[in-house]
Structure formats: C-alpha cells, structure tokens
Amino acid sequence: MQIHVYEQVREVTPADFADYLDPASTAVISIDMHRGHLDDSPDCPCPAPRARDVVAPIDAFHRAARALAVPIVHVKSVLRPGGADDLAGIPAAWRRTFPLHVGAIPNADAHAIEGSRWTEWVTEVLPQDLRVENKRRLSAFYPTDLDFLLRNQRITTVVLDGGFTDCCVLNTAFDANNHNYRVIVLRDLVRGTDDHLEAAALSMVSLHLGLVMDSAALLAQWSVGSRAGR
Amino acid sequence: MQIHVYEQVREVTPADFADYLDPASTAVISIDMHRGHLDDSPDCPCPAPRARDVVAPIDAFHRAARALAVPIVHVKSVLRPGGADDLAGIPAAWRRTFPLHVGAIPNADAHAIEGSRWTEWVTEVLPQDLRVENKRRLSAFYPTDLDFLLRNQRITTVVLDGGFTDCCVLNTAFDANNHNYRVIVLRDLVRGTDDHLEAAALSMVSLHLGLVMDSAALLAQWSVGSRAGR
Amino acid sequence: MQIHVYEQVREVTPADFADYLDPASTAVISIDMHRGHLDDSPDCPCPAPRARDVVAPIDAFHRAARALAVPIVHVKSVLRPGGADDLAGIPAAWRRTFPLHVGAIPNADAHAIEGSRWTEWVTEVLPQDLRVENKRRLSAFYPTDLDFLLRNQRITTVVLDGGFTDCCVLNTAFDANNHNYRVIVLRDLVRGTDDHLEAAALSMVSLHLGLVMDSAALLAQWSVGSRAGR
Amino acid sequence: MQIHVYEQVREVTPADFADYLDPASTAVISIDMHRGHLDDSPDCPCPAPRARDVVAPIDAFHRAARALAVPIVHVKSVLRPGGADDLAGIPAAWRRTFPLHVGAIPNADAHAIEGSRWTEWVTEVLPQDLRVENKRRLSAFYPTDLDFLLRNQRITTVVLDGGFTDCCVLNTAFDANNHNYRVIVLRDLVRGTDDHLEAAALSMVSLHLGLVMDSAALLAQWSVGSRAGR
C-alpha cells in the first residue's frame, strides 16, 4: 500500500502495519469541522478557509467508514460563555501569536462560545456518531474525555481528519501516540495554515508518529481486510 | 525585543508579553540531552547528532538562568529494562516509522534502557537542578509528573531547550500550552531532525503556541526585569 | 474555628489554615445534585434519597458564597446515549456491586443519559455559575475538564458539597488533594450511603485530605476575612 | 466464590465476574510497602505499624502470582530531595491533618526522600517485577506512569495490596475504577489506619468499586481458570 514519508510516496507491505489496519479496533477522529473555523463570512472568529475544501470529501469518507462499522468521533472546541475557560482566565496563546502572522482577527472573542452559531458542525454528524464537545485548547485529548471514550470502546487505532494539520491535528497525533494508539493521518482530508506548514506537519507525523495515507488507500485496505473475513 | 514569527524577525513590545518574561515564575525545561541521542559512536541507539552543537550553549544558558534563580528541569527518556514500557508492550511508533526515512537504526533496542549508559546526561546537571527521568514517549509532560512539579513550584512560564525541535520539543510545547503555561522556545538552543523540519516546528510554535526567541534576547529581558527590582 | 477530626469537634486556629480560608482563591464544587439520584419516584435510576435533605441548605450556602464572589461549579454525571461510555463499553463497576447491597435497581440503565430528565439539576444553577457536565464515573476530576477550569481561574482551594460522601465526594476529595488543591468538605452539606459510611468518609477526609467543617463555620471565616479587607 | 460486601461474607458465581478473574489480563499493584511506613524505629517518618503484619503474607501471595505469570507492580512514594514536590512547594495536606489525630510526627520531614533509607522496600522486589517509584501524594496513578504501564501491558484488572486501606489503597481503587480497570482489593493483605477505617474503606470498595476478597479465594479462582486451560 502507499504511504507518504516526508513528502515522498512509499510502497510498504500492509502486513508490516497490520495493527494499523483493522477497522474493528479503529475510530475516526474528526477535528474542529465547525462554523467558527469554516464559515465564509467576515465575522468568522477563527478563519481556516482552506479546510472548506475537505468538507465534502470528509463526509464521503465518514459514510464509507460507517458502512464498515468504524465509529466517527467528532471533536470541536467549545468555550464556556463568560470566558472562564479562556478570555476571563488564562487566555489561549494563539490569541496573541497568530495575529502576529495574519493580522488582527476582528471577531476572535466570539470563537467557540457555547450556544453560539460558531460551534455548529459543518460536516455531517449522524445520531450514531460520537461527539466530544469540550475541546478547550488545541488537543482533542486534553482536557476532554476522548481517551476515556476510546478505551471504553476498546479502540487502539485512530484515524485523523479535519484541521489545522499543523496545529490541532498534529497535537492530537502527538497525544494519541503518547497514549499508545496507532495513528493514521489522512493526507487528503486535513488542511493546515498553508501548504508549507501542512506538508511539514505531515512529514513530522510520518517520521515520528504514524502513517500518512490518502483516504482511498486506507479504505482499500479496510475493504481487503473485510473481504478476508476479519 | 526580538522574536521570530514564521522565519521572520519581529520587534515586539516586552510589556505586551510581560506574563512570559518574569523569571520568578519561570522554569527551564531541557529535553533529552542524553547520551542515547548525542553519543558520537556507531551504536548510539537513537542518534540526533545535530544537537551536539548545542550542548555547550545550553550549559551556558543554564548557568545564567541559575544565577537568576530560575530552576532547570532536565527531562529524559528512560525505559524499564525488559521492555514493559515499549518493546515488550505496545512499541513506540517511531521504531517503525523513523527508519523509513533514515534507514535501519542498528542499536535502537537499547534506547533509553534504565541503568544503561545511554541514559547518562550530556549537559551539566547540578544537585540543585530538578530531574524528570521517566519520559516514556515524546512529551515531557505525559506520563511524567512534570505538570505536578511545576504547579507545586507555582511555575507559569516554561522555556524549552534541547531536542528534537520537530518531535519532543514541539510535543512538549503543545502540552505546556494546553495546560495553560506560557511557552518560550529558544531558537538557538534546540535542534531538529534537519534544518527544514526544525524551522517548520519553530514556525508552528510561533503561530500557535508562544514565543520563539534567542537565548540572549531572553536573558536580556530577564536582566532588565531584575534590575527593575522585580 | 471548629473543625471535625475523626468524629470529634476540634478547635483550631484559623491562621494555621489561612491557605484554606481565602474566598478569593476558592471555588465550591457541588457534586451530582441531579434528578437521577434525587428524584422521589420508583424509577429514579440511582437513588440517593438521603441527599434530598441537603438540597435547600446547599442552595442557601451557594447564595452566600455567590455574595462573596466565590464561584460555584456544578458537576454531574452525564453519559452518551447508546452507552458508548458505559453499558455498551466497559460497564461501571457499581452496576454489579451496589445491587449486592441494596438489591436490584430497576431503572439503572437510564442513569445519567444525556438529554434525559434524569440529568436535570435539583439545586439552583444560575447563569453565572460554572457547569461540568461530563462526569462519567465517580470523580469530578477525571475525565472532565474541572482541573483545567480551576487552574484557569487560579483557584487553589475547593469546597465540596453534594453526594455520596463515601463515593463521588470522597473520590473528588482524593483527586483534588493529589492535584495540590486545599480541600474542605462541608459536613452538613454532604450525604452518604448511610450514616456509618458517611461518618467514616468524613473521618478519612479529616485525617488524610483536608478540613471537615460545617458550612456556617466556613461562612463565618470567610466573613471575617472579608471584613479584614482581604 | 466468597467475597465480602459491607462486612458480610457473600457467595457469588465466578462466571458473573469472569472479567475480574483472568490472570492473563491482571496485574498486582502493591502499595507503599517501604521502610518510611513500616520501619520499627522511633524516627520512622510516617508510621503505619499495622501493615507490618502483612509483609510476609504479601510476599507469599506475590510468589504465587508470579508462578501464574501475573506481573507485580510495586509502587512507592518518593519525593525529590530539597522538597520541590512537597515541603518546599505546596505541602501535602496530611502533614497538617494527620497529626491532629495521632499527634506530632517527629521525623515527618524525612518521609520518602529520594535516596534515603526510608524509601527502601520491605517486601520482596524481584528483578522481573515492575516498579513505579514516583508516587508523590496518595494515588498510585497520579502523577505516575502506572496507567501508561498497565495499558502497555494490556492489563485490564488490578489486584491491590499494601497500605493504608483507607488512604492510598482506597484512592488507588477509585482511580483504577475511573480508568475502567476491574478492581480487586485483597482484604487480608491491606491494612488501614485502624480497624474501623479499614473496614469502612473495604465496605466502600465493595459497594462502589469492585470486589473485596481474601487472597486465598483469588488464588483458588486463578488456579481453576488455569486448570481450565485459559
């Protein structure tokens, strides 16, 4: 099967990565595909416009995963109204650093506020899907119950899609790795700050954390496994 | 003062980052400066030769930090003999992925084994310094007691040096950020897999996680603060 | 001031426990005061009828605490519909052990299901209060974001009320202690499985974990501190 | 098989607790059997003399467990010299509360200091055993790597022995439960502050957290399972 190692396509033997490829012990973690990043309006509080391109492909991949009984866990940032988590406490670092690069973000204070439209999902979330709705900073794992949930479901492999490749996706890949999950990041279904940092983050994943693959390649492997009666 | 934002030098006002610059609430976290990465021999189990260049400069920075009563916390990977943490359990992902890029690592199984010479510090570790000696994967925070220790010492800012910029240092910066520490990564005192990934990791830190500075610039700020009677 | 040490009233000097008594760095953690434990109906899924007696006194204490600007954090068990957290995963231990003592619990499967009436608060929850609504097992701390929230608010002392004294309250006191919070359990505002285990749990708190006090005694101390211009 | 539920002997069907009884997925966690609690001298820094009675029986049980390939994990409190974890940081609560009951503890400041004789094991620790030597407060789980280690070894059931039943053992049982381990506390191999609190802690375990058994009863079940070819 084809994986991507530091921007190069590589052919590897699936049997060498069998522990990564069993849909029965896998969950898809879809990160921050909500209106607060993806809304196409001037008051979008934390714009990540590049990720709009992957909404439809992510939905298609999730449909295929559900058909194989792979659970989808949708994770998003939600902050308590009043700012106890962030602006009225110890503010998230990105509020001061990211504008040094992209300029002032006019509506940033509205980001992820519980109950606001900015927390609405943009991708399809079905009733049978699982939701983690208290991501507070960058990782899908801390301070959420994602690890507790995955362990309860006896999941040992996580497949990541969503955004930012070089921020929340990469952070989640690090955390999953440290908790001993096998990690796959889907190269075609993540988007970063820009092409350069997106590619670099995928290179880091490929060297230190797990497999970087296209979703079609993963589905092909899952399909082979299913046909083999696993 | 000068910081680095996505490979550009930027002049910012120290008062805008006052919470990053108080030595009284700061600790230096020095990551994985041990013989298992830095030994100049063919059986070095996980070679990171680029970081040898920063051994002396890190020692010099630590001496200056100690003179200002900033605690130094040395963190390193140590694995239980017999492999219960790793090879005889769920093996660390890098064991299969990193060789896809650098080729087979002959002595990788000896990496970080408790009691072996590969866990010896290469930088100066003084009796008054603090040590965290059970890093098991990539982060200095999980599954160690680093957060517990820092909180006990009422530390709110961490300054990172050591290696790999694009792996353990970046992972530690993410974790520190998620735990609400103010994060500074010292650009001249970290080394990555190569120039490209090192620069990309520093760019990610500068956009999402905190300040990227040279150690001389930070010492200058600390010195100003000390003179001001803080 | 009066505290309770192993079922004995003891007079101690407030100055010896000054770090426990500053309302400016304190939060009240109110545990599991919801309909799933307190509803007076035969289909209450996890009955804790003894705690009904403390609903009104807890509300009164919370009003007094709010008047001193002490934040109230209401924590409750909520489980994902479908059972991914519990019945359809690795079931909570109490489901098999507690009935060995109290007999079968007819509607236990309905306990804490998200969106059901069993998760409704019984005590007053005001808009300015804070809520942690993803307790999954016994502790208010794991796997929730309570520690993250308290740290963000620079809280260093927690005052516990609610139920069960010998289960979720005691567990939360242990966790708070391990995270270095100063812990106060309000003897008159917690209720246990029965008198015996309630008293034993308070004795354990008083020996190992912190102060056991009546709410009136704590309010008196807070009031003295406020008058002293703290 | 016989278990103990709230001070009563109960006969239960092993098949109803099959997930508790498989030695292949079980580890023994032995808590704080070190000289700092058990030394029979006036300068013992944190005396727990009642637990001296279980040293030999614990050793015997561990030998039987090893014969069935059940790993033994010895956990103990160790504090950094200089007090950064405790006396020179945020002191552990018990230092002020426990003396309210037992009177001043003359040598308490020496408790658990790394490198001192007070950290020496009193029970047998063999080279093939596992050790967790950075317990800092009461739980064997936080802030240690015990959960990481157990997960790595695919352990899902923990059997607890050691001391104090109403303190570190009970806390560890709560934490294990919250992390979804099946929990067994060995009634004959734990000792508490006194008979009363020891019995109460075992009652709490039996209602909320798992099984309370005698070690002989557990060994008999393990033996049956082994004969059945498991």
From TrEMBL, chains A, B, C, D:
Q: Which domain of life is it from?
A: Bacteria
Q: Does the keyword Hydrolase apply?
A: yes
User: What InterPro entries does the annotation carry?
Assistant: Isochorismatase-like_dom, Isochorismatase-like_hydrls, Isochorismatase-like_sf
Which keywords fit this entry according to its UniProt record? Hydrolase
Question: Which CDD domains does the record cross-reference, listed alphabetically?
Answer: cysteine_hydrolases (cd00431)
List, for all copies, the residue spans of the domain called Isochorismatase-like: 26-216
PANTHER family from the UniProt entry:
ISOCHORISMATASE-LIKE DOMAIN-CONTAINING PROTEIN, PEROXYUREIDOACRYLATE/UREIDOACRYLATE AMIDOHYDROLASE-RELATED
What's the protein name?
Isochorismatase-like domain-containing protein
